[in-house]
# Entry
Amino acid sequence: MGCDGGTIPKRHELVKGPKKVEQVDKNAELAAKWKYCALSQEKLRRPIVSCDLGRLYNKDAIIEYLLDKTAERPNTEAVVHIRALKDIKELNLTDNPEWEGERRNAKGDRYEDIHCGMFICPVVGLEMNGKHRFCYLQTCGCVFSERALKEVKTEICHKCGDPFTAEDIVVLNGTKEEVEQLQKKMAEKRVKTKTKKSKKSKEAEAVSTPSDEAGPSGTSSSSKETKSATASATKRSVQSTEKSEVFKSLFTSHSSAKRTKEQTSNWVTHTPYHF
# Structure
């Protein structure tokens, strides 16, 4: 049964211990979040958008998903909360001057820095590679590092100058706790928008319905009578309008077409007119 030739088996060869838990490579995890679309798993390319939960997507992938939600796509759980284009914001990113593109190490004879990001913070200069926390503003879509927003405290965007508040700041690719807080914030925001829409619709109905609801007092019937009277008056006025003299002059019955006595022909002459 094996172990021939005087070989001595060791304990780990005979006894099977518990399986080791597979650990996810941190570098691969960061690259998947910050360099690839959360829906299509393709490399991020402009225009890049983000949702209220701080996930990064390619805009064309989101548009394809919204146009045909029945198609089978992977990672649809990441975009269930996106119902329309208003639920995403196009990001105003700052390019990294040290980023040389995908073909920078085509020959394989150069050191490839896997932590080099395509974009940087325009204030501090930190690379957006996952090692540093980044945020974006829902008002204008500009992206900054969290360190820049903490060190330079202001209520105006550092890049475009638009005003913003603390509620407009959304963390990109945050932790589970931060994502849960953003989900609560998103739900509250949607409830507020629904209440505003319902109030506006009620106000519009209240403005337009008083004349219709006043049936017992007779105002509604009087308004209908006035409308019918005006309609009939307009019809009569259109029908009774006298035609222009230019139009009447086209016919022989008009006074301009009738000949005078001087223009009538004489029975003596052979000419039609006698002057």
